[in-house]
Amino acid sequence: MTKIEAIKPGPKPKKEDGTPDKRRRVTPEVQPKHPDLKPHKHKPGDQK
User: Fold this and answer.
1) Beta partners for 14?
2) Per the record, which residues fall in region Disordered (predicted)?
3) Cα–Cα distance measured from residue 42 to residue 21, given in angstroms and rounded to the nearest whole number
4) What is the pTM of this model?
């Protein structure tokens, strides 16, 4: 039987020189490039 492992959240990886890897972060100076999610619209008669 194959063992299934979940993806574990954890600290961001650090580069070889010890500084944090910034590729996965949205910093304040680049925040305008990342718009917020659009509001979700439900169809008429949908309960959720």
Assistant:
1) 20
2) 1-48
3) 39
4) 0.26
